[in-house]
Write a structure and sequence with these properties.
Helix content is 33%, strand content 30%. It is built from three helices and five strands, in the order H-E-H-E-E-H-E-E. Strands 1, 2, 3, 4 and 5 form a five-stranded antiparallel sheet that branches. The longest helix has 16 residues. The mean pLDDT is 92.
C-alpha cells in the first residue's frame, strides 16, 4: 500500500492508538460537587495530559480516549488510572481498556 493511502486510512506508521474508559460516579453528589468533578476530569485528567475524549452517559460513563494527532500510550493509561484512584470520594468504579486502534478498533 502506498504511503499516501496508508496515511489516509490511518494504517501502518500512521495508525493511532487509544483506549476506552468507563466509570461510575456517586449518584448522590450535589450539583456543585458534580460540576467540580467534571471540571477536574476535563482540566486535570484529559486536557492536562494532552488527551482528547469522546463519549458520555448518565451515572455510568463510557469514553474513548486518544491523543491529539498521535497515539495514546501506556503512560497515558497510567496517568488516568492514577487520577481515577485519587477520586475515591466521587468515583464508585472505573475500568480502563487495553490500547486499541482508534480508527479501526472494535468499539
Amino acid at each position: 500500500m502506498k504511503k499516501r493511502l496508508r496515511k489516509k486510512l490511518h494504517k501502518g506508521e500512521f495508525k493511532e492508538m487509544g483506549f476506552k474508559i468507563e466509570f461510575e460516579y456517586d449518584p448522590n453528589l450535589t450539583k456543585e460537587d458534580l460540576d467540580k468533578l467534571w471540571l477536574r476530569f476535563i482540566e486535570d485528567a484529559i486536557e492536562g495530559n494532552n488527551l482528547c475524549v469522546g463519549g458520555g452517559g448518565n451515572y455510568s460513563q463510557s469514553y474513548f480516549v486518544c491523543r491529539y494527532k498521535s497515539s495514546a500510550n501506556q503512560q497515558d493509561k497510567d496517568k488516568l488510572n492514577k487520577w481515577f484512584l485519587s477520586q475515591k470520594e466521587t468515583i464508585i468504579s472505573f475500568t480502563i481498556s487495553d490500547l486499541t486502534d482508534a480508527w479501526h478498533g472494535d468499539f
